[in-house]
Write a structure and sequence with these properties.
The protein is built from 18 helices and 22 strands. Helix 10 packs parallel to helix 11 and helix 11 runs antiparallel to helix 13. The radius of gyration is 43 Å and the shape is elongated.
Length: 645
């Protein structure tokens, strides 16, 4: 075989990837064949007669563990070739030489380029043994460097602090401090001062038990000067080193992980679970509570008709009682707001009448903190159009904003509410809303104001600047969620000691219906319904509610029959009474409102449905309208006439 052919073959004698790779370099083909015969059973072999080609092979095969090279080769002597090979490979080297080349061999050994040499001719078994030792040494050194690199890379990349120490607390490895640090030797200096006492206790526990765990809080000061809590999860355990020593003398490793985010999320989840439990409890009592309020409210309205107009004191007391009922209803809605999901019921709302109706409740919220706060609601221009919103959710949002404004004024002050028409683009608003205009609803206070870093976070769930027990951090996040769901926007302008202005941007309904025309349409529809004498069926398990609703409807001239449950309602149908509209309580024993509706619709497919309920959260009523208890006679009649019209 020619030298050119041999150099181009780059032969692998074996393809087993688990076997060490050896590079054989000799300008005599017969030497390569002789070496291959001895080594091919145990190694993967690369062979070439050209030392320059051998350098290329080394670059292509970094797994090469041993190089066996002849000393006398044309173009590049063996010791020089191995010196160059040492620059590109960590493979160990064996030099084949005769006695005449002993001086070159000694020089190569002294320079560290050669680990061993073999005289020609060699003894096969001795050669095989020497190659095995040199190869194993290379593989061991390579494995050690790999482990060191992995450990170094792991310690540098780990998102936690890792400290190795002996049983006495002397540092061995650490990714916290550099070995050149003057405090390197004492393990305790690798931890923040707040953790050091716990580390000492954990070291003793680990000596006794083999491991120890802690969750430790550290108070840190941010760049802005604020104090926050950082949580450290500490895990410490013994290592199986040094060998054959008792556990109390073994080395230890400690992992210090920053788990502040996890602890915060867990705390938020626990808070959410408590709120959900509160919502479930509130939902259980809200229906009954609002039934009582509805009965009281209805009774007061009917009583008002029996009081002479000149009985001013009695009328004043009556109005106070009606206001108290509305405040009770508002408090119930606020309670249900937390821990319960609710779909917003968007409708056209006249902002002028809405704010007028809400003035008493908002004023009451400002008196709840003990300080003297004044509420000023600026008159709304008659030209301000209808807005698209959920009135109950908007009421809750304004209550939250007013309470926050009150809390921001510990020494009292003024809260101003102003509605105005502005140019503002609400890109996600429905097509029936104005694309470039909105109603801006400002809530301005004279309070302490907020710095920019607080403004950036005020809408985050569970974020609060109030003391523990004074706030949940859900108010403004709830406002933000509501305003987003109704296609609106929100803006905050605030500076420390200069007060705050919260502005809600609400979409405008393009059909310009004024409040006056709305009332005219209502009264016209009412007159039309009276002329037609529609029949109404009221189904509610509460006697007081049936009495109030029936009286409201009968006063309006409608024909009304009532039933306490489904059986009584079906009995009325069997007797020949066929109502045009059924007013159904949602929550009733035996059969609730939706199940009653299904039975009634089987008998009367064209019957219309109106639901009423004291708990309006998470209800699926198939698109039928819902009247929230407590309600006034006007609210009830408006809903009935809208349905029948």
């Amino acid at each position: 075989m020619s030298q050119e052919t041999a150099s181009q073959e780059m032969v692998y004698s074996r393809t087993d990837n688990d076997r060490p790779t050896i590079l054989l370099v000799d300008d005599e083909e017969e030497i390569l064949i002789a070496l291959s015969d001895i080594l091919e059973d145990d190694y993967t072999l690369l062979t070439t007669t050209d030392p320059l080609e051998a350098l290329e092979l080394l670059s292509q095969h970094p797994e090469t563990a041993t190089i066996i090279s002849d000393q006398r080769m044309p173009g590049l002597m063996g010791d020089r070739f191995l010196a160059r090979a040492d620059e590109i490979s960590d493979a160990r080297s064996i030099l084949l030489t005769g006695y005449a080349d002993l001086e070159a061999v000694v020089s190569a050994l002294n320079e560290g380029n050669v680990q061993a040499y073999i005289h020609k001719p060699w003894e096969s078994e001795s050669l095989r043994t020497l190659v095995a030792e040199v190869t194993q040494h290379c593989l061991s050194q390579r494995a050690l460097r790999t482990e060191q690199a992995l450990l170094r890379g792991l310690m540098e990349a780990l998102p936690l602090n890792l400290i190795f120490s002996d049983a006495q607390g002397n540092s061995i490895r650490s990714n916290v401090k550099d070995k050149l640090d003057e405090y390197w030797g004492d393990e305790i200096t690798h931890y923040p001062p707040a953790l050091r006492d716990e580390i000492l206790k954990m070291r003793e526990e680990t000596r006794r038990n083999g491991q120890s765990e802690r969750l430790v809080a550290e108070q840190v000061t941010t760049n802005s000067g604020a104090i926050k809590t950082r949580w450290h999860e500490l895990n410490r355990l013994t290592l199986a080193w040094p060998k054959n020593v008792p556990q109390e003398q073994a080395w230890q490793v400690c992992l210090d992980r920053d788990v502040t985010r996890r602890v915060t999320i867990e705390s938020q989840l626990r808070q959410a679970e408590r709120l959900e439990s509160l919502g479930t409890l509130a939902g259980g009592v809200a229906h009954d509570f609002n039934n009582l309020l509805a009965a009281i409210s209805g009774s007061l309205e009917m009583l008002e008709d029996d009081i002479a107009p000149d009985k001013l004191q009695a009328l004043r007391f009556l109005q106070q009682a009606k206001d108290a009922v509305q405040r009770g209803a508002a408090l119930t809605r606020r309670l249900l707001q937390f821990g319960r999901s609710k779909q917003d019921s968007l409708k056209e709302v006249p902002i002028r009448r809405f704010l007028a109706d809400l003035e008493g409740i908002l004023g009451q919220s400002l008196r709840g903190g003990g300080q003297r706060c004044e509420l000023v609601i600026h008159p709304v221009s008659e030209g301000v159009p209808l807005i698209l919103t959920d009135p109950q959710q908007l009421e809750m949002a304004l209550l939250n904003l007013c309470v926050n404004a009150r809390d921001a004024m510990p020494h009292g002050g003024k809260v101003e509410i102003k509605a105005r028409l502005v140019e503002h683009s609400l890109k996600n608003a429905p097509s029936y809303c104005a694309p470039c205009h909105a109603v801006a609803l400002d809530v301005a206070d004279e309070g302490e104001g907020m710095p920019p870093e607080i403004i950036d976070r005020i809408f985050d769930p569970f974020f609060t600047t109030k003391e523990v027990g004074k706030g949940t951090g859900l108010g403004l996040s709830g406002v933000y969620g509501f305003i987003t769901r109704c296609y609106g926007d929100i803006r905050v302008i605030s500076k420390p000691q200069q007060g705050t202005v919260m502005t809600l941007f609400l979409p405008i309904v393009t059909s310009q219906i004024t409040e006056e025309s709305s009332k005219e349409n209502f009264h016209a529809a009412t007159d039309n319904q009276k002329a037609q004498k529609h029949r109404i069926l009221v189904v509610d398990d509460e006697d007081m509610i049936r009495l109030v609703v029936s009286n409201f409807l009968e006063i309006d001239g409608l024909e009304v029959k009532n039933a306490r449950n489904l059986d009584e309602a079906l009995a009325l149908l069997d007797s020949g009474y066929h109502p045009d509209l059924a007013i159904l309580d949602v929550r009733m024993p035996s059969h609730d409102g939706p199940s009653c509706a299904r039975f009634l619709q089987q008998r009367l497919p064209n019957i219309k449905l109106l639901y009423m309920s004291g708990d309006v959260a998470n209800l699926d009523l198939g698109g039928a309208p819902l009247l929230s208890k407590p309600f006034t006679q006007e609210m009830l009649l408006r809903s009935v006439h809208e349905l029948m019209n």
